Amino acid sequence: MRHSIYTSLALKKKEGKKSFAILIDPDKITIPKLEALIKLSTTASVNYFFVGGSLIINNQLDKVVQHIKSNCSIPVVLFPGNPAQVSIHADALLYLSLISGRNPELLIGQHVISAPQVKQSGLEIISTGYMVIDGGAPTTVSYISNATPIPADKNDIALCTALAGELLGLKLIFMDAGSGAKRPITENMIEAVAKNITVPLILGGGITDPEKAFLNCKSGADLIVVGNAIEKDATLIAEIAAAINSVKVTIN
User: Fold this and answer.
1) What is the mean pLDDT of residues 52-59?
2) Could you tell me the domains of the chain?
3) Which of 77, 113, 170, 190 is the most exposed place for a label (fewest CB within 10 A)?
């Protein structure tokens, strides 16, 4: 299996560099919109495309991934609603374990079933501790997972959950307020988590403008993921990319 995506993220974290990923839901994108998104993303030097959704009901996953790979060099990382959502045409797959909940199926159960298929895919598999944070609105993830999100003001719970994930050997921590979150994850929570883990920290959910992306990075996020806001206004890509790239972090 390949290891280039994780190696790149780890190196960027070590150097204090931030990254930007655009989340594409195959159920919501058309090919003309995807082509426009690819052009804007290439111009703005977006680092990654994350592709996936909670359900994926139109069977377009392979088609979307292949179209991206045929039209640009930006790496494609699968962000699956369940571990079995695999496209061999992608570059990597986030093998998500929902460590913020207590549903055994999403901690390990589905992984036991999907593991042979995932390994045979030949993709770079990146074990990821997935943490759902209360964003002020019900999300598809919370409904499907039957798991309660971490309260938005409980920094200590988020910190200890992320630290446990790292100590268990997970390579990434992904904190997500959910698509269309009314309330994004606070800078205080991001900072509390970032200061206590050494693995790269991914942030998503409720990031609707360049300022929030900038503040998240300043607080310790290593990779910002934006989906819903860009679905509504693709011109935000250049502004958010510029904001993320402007963050300067001094490494001691």
Assistant:
1) 73
2) 4-245 (3.20.20.390)
3) 113
